Amino acid sequence: MFNLFKKKANEIACPMDGEVIAITEVNDPVFASKAMGDGFAVEPSNGKVFSPIVGKVTSVFPTKHAIGLLSDSGAEILVHIGINTVDLAGAGFDILVTEGDAVDLTTPLAVVDLEYLKEQEKPVTTMVIWTNSEGKEINVQLGKSNAQTVIGKLK
Protein backbone atom coordinates (compact mmCIF):
# COMPACT_ATOMS: atom_id res chain seq x y z
CA MET A 1 0.00 0.00 0.00
CA PHE A 2 1.23 3.50 -0.84
CA ASN A 3 2.24 5.46 2.29
CA LEU A 4 1.47 9.17 1.96
CA PHE A 5 3.54 9.86 5.05
CA LYS A 6 6.75 8.16 3.91
CA LYS A 7 9.61 10.63 4.35
CA LYS A 8 12.64 10.93 2.12
CA ALA A 9 15.95 9.63 3.45
CA ASN A 10 17.68 13.02 3.19
CA GLU A 11 15.07 15.05 5.10
CA ILE A 12 15.84 16.34 8.55
CA ALA A 13 13.20 17.35 11.05
CA CYS A 14 13.17 19.39 14.20
CA PRO A 15 13.46 16.89 17.08
CA MET A 16 11.69 19.09 19.66
CA ASP A 17 9.24 21.96 19.86
CA GLY A 18 11.20 25.19 20.24
CA GLU A 19 13.55 27.66 18.61
CA VAL A 20 15.97 26.27 16.01
CA ILE A 21 19.33 28.06 16.18
CA ALA A 22 22.58 27.82 14.25
CA ILE A 23 25.13 25.44 15.76
CA THR A 24 27.55 28.38 15.95
CA GLU A 25 25.18 30.08 18.43
CA VAL A 26 25.35 27.25 20.99
CA ASN A 27 26.83 28.32 24.33
CA ASP A 28 29.47 25.59 24.27
CA PRO A 29 32.75 25.97 22.35
CA VAL A 30 32.97 22.31 21.27
CA PHE A 31 29.58 22.39 19.56
CA ALA A 32 29.76 26.01 18.37
CA SER A 33 33.14 25.43 16.68
CA LYS A 34 31.70 22.39 14.84
CA ALA A 35 34.48 20.24 16.35
CA MET A 36 32.04 17.32 16.52
CA GLY A 37 30.46 18.11 13.14
CA ASP A 38 28.02 20.49 11.54
CA GLY A 39 24.41 20.71 12.57
CA PHE A 40 21.90 22.85 14.42
CA ALA A 41 20.43 23.19 17.88
CA VAL A 42 17.03 23.65 19.48
CA GLU A 43 16.13 25.70 22.54
CA PRO A 44 13.27 23.37 23.53
CA SER A 45 9.89 24.37 24.93
CA ASN A 46 9.12 20.84 26.18
CA GLY A 47 11.01 17.62 26.83
CA LYS A 48 9.65 15.35 24.08
CA VAL A 49 12.47 14.35 21.71
CA PHE A 50 11.73 12.78 18.30
CA SER A 51 14.01 11.35 15.64
CA PRO A 52 15.20 14.07 13.26
CA ILE A 53 15.84 11.51 10.47
CA VAL A 54 14.65 8.27 8.89
CA GLY A 55 17.09 5.50 9.79
CA LYS A 56 18.10 3.47 12.81
CA VAL A 57 19.46 3.89 16.33
CA THR A 58 23.16 3.07 16.46
CA SER A 59 23.82 3.92 20.10
CA VAL A 60 22.24 5.13 23.30
CA PHE A 61 24.81 6.60 25.65
CA PRO A 62 24.77 4.95 29.13
CA THR A 63 24.25 8.41 30.62
CA LYS A 64 21.13 8.79 28.43
CA HIS A 65 22.05 12.34 27.33
CA ALA A 66 22.86 11.42 23.72
CA ILE A 67 21.56 9.11 21.02
CA GLY A 68 23.43 8.09 17.86
CA LEU A 69 21.48 7.58 14.64
CA LEU A 70 22.31 6.49 11.10
CA SER A 71 20.09 7.88 8.36
CA ASP A 72 18.97 5.79 5.41
CA SER A 73 21.12 8.13 3.28
CA GLY A 74 24.27 7.35 5.34
CA ALA A 75 24.43 10.42 7.58
CA GLU A 76 25.66 9.76 11.11
CA ILE A 77 23.61 11.93 13.47
CA LEU A 78 24.15 12.60 17.16
CA VAL A 79 21.24 13.99 19.17
CA HIS A 80 22.88 15.53 22.25
CA ILE A 81 20.34 16.64 24.85
CA GLY A 82 21.51 19.58 26.92
CA ILE A 83 24.99 20.88 27.68
CA ASN A 84 27.18 19.11 30.25
CA THR A 85 24.29 16.75 30.94
CA VAL A 86 26.65 13.76 30.95
CA ASP A 87 27.29 14.85 34.57
CA LEU A 88 23.71 13.87 35.51
CA ALA A 89 24.42 10.15 34.93
CA GLY A 90 21.00 9.61 33.34
CA ALA A 91 18.88 11.45 35.91
CA GLY A 92 16.09 13.40 34.21
CA PHE A 93 16.14 11.28 31.02
CA ASP A 94 13.69 8.59 29.92
CA ILE A 95 14.99 6.88 26.78
CA LEU A 96 12.32 5.26 24.59
CA VAL A 97 14.50 3.48 21.98
CA THR A 98 17.24 0.88 21.96
CA GLU A 99 20.18 0.21 19.68
CA GLY A 100 19.05 -1.25 16.36
CA ASP A 101 15.55 0.25 16.42
CA ALA A 102 14.25 1.65 13.14
CA VAL A 103 13.21 5.30 13.43
CA ASP A 104 11.40 7.88 11.36
CA LEU A 105 10.29 11.46 11.99
CA THR A 106 7.38 10.26 14.15
CA THR A 107 9.50 8.08 16.47
CA PRO A 108 9.84 9.38 20.04
CA LEU A 109 13.45 8.95 21.19
CA ALA A 110 13.25 10.28 24.73
CA VAL A 111 11.38 12.36 27.26
CA VAL A 112 13.53 14.79 29.21
CA ASP A 113 12.65 16.60 32.43
CA LEU A 114 13.74 20.08 31.34
CA GLU A 115 12.89 21.57 34.74
CA TYR A 116 15.20 19.07 36.43
CA LEU A 117 18.02 19.96 34.02
CA LYS A 118 17.49 23.66 34.78
CA GLU A 119 17.47 22.96 38.55
CA GLN A 120 20.83 21.23 38.06
CA GLU A 121 22.03 24.37 36.21
CA LYS A 122 22.41 22.50 32.92
CA PRO A 123 21.43 24.35 29.72
CA VAL A 124 18.65 22.48 27.89
CA THR A 125 19.91 23.38 24.41
CA THR A 126 19.70 20.21 22.30
CA MET A 127 22.16 19.71 19.45
CA VAL A 128 21.64 17.69 16.28
CA ILE A 129 25.13 17.01 14.93
CA TRP A 130 26.02 15.41 11.60
CA THR A 131 29.23 13.70 12.71
CA ASN A 132 30.32 12.62 9.20
CA SER A 133 29.55 15.97 7.57
CA GLU A 134 33.03 16.71 6.23
CA GLY A 135 32.73 17.91 2.64
CA LYS A 136 28.93 17.98 2.83
CA GLU A 137 26.43 20.57 3.87
CA ILE A 138 23.42 20.72 6.12
CA ASN A 139 20.88 23.49 5.61
CA VAL A 140 17.99 23.97 7.99
CA GLN A 141 15.39 26.66 8.50
CA LEU A 142 16.11 28.60 11.68
CA GLY A 143 13.42 30.01 13.98
CA LYS A 144 10.43 28.66 15.84
CA SER A 145 9.51 25.11 14.86
CA ASN A 146 7.51 22.14 16.02
CA ALA A 147 8.87 18.65 16.58
CA GLN A 148 8.56 16.35 13.56
CA THR A 149 8.46 19.30 11.11
CA VAL A 150 10.87 18.95 8.18
CA ILE A 151 13.24 21.92 8.43
CA GLY A 152 15.93 20.96 5.93
CA LYS A 153 17.83 18.41 3.93
CA LEU A 154 21.15 16.65 4.27
CA LYS A 155 23.24 17.17 1.11
From TrEMBL:
NCBIfam families: PTBA. InterPro entries: Dup_hybrid_motif, PTS_EIIA_1_perm, PTS_EIIA_component. Keywords: Kinase, Phosphotransferase system, Sugar transport, Transferase, Transport. Residues 28-132 form the PTS EIIA type-1 domain. It is found in: Cytoplasm. SUPFAM superfamilies: Duplicated hybrid motif. It holds the Pfam family PTS_EIIA_1. This is Sugar permease. Gene3D superfamilies: Glucose Permease (Domain IIA). PROSITE patterns: PTS_EIIA_TYPE_1 (PS51093), PTS_EIIA_TYPE_1_HIS (PS00371).
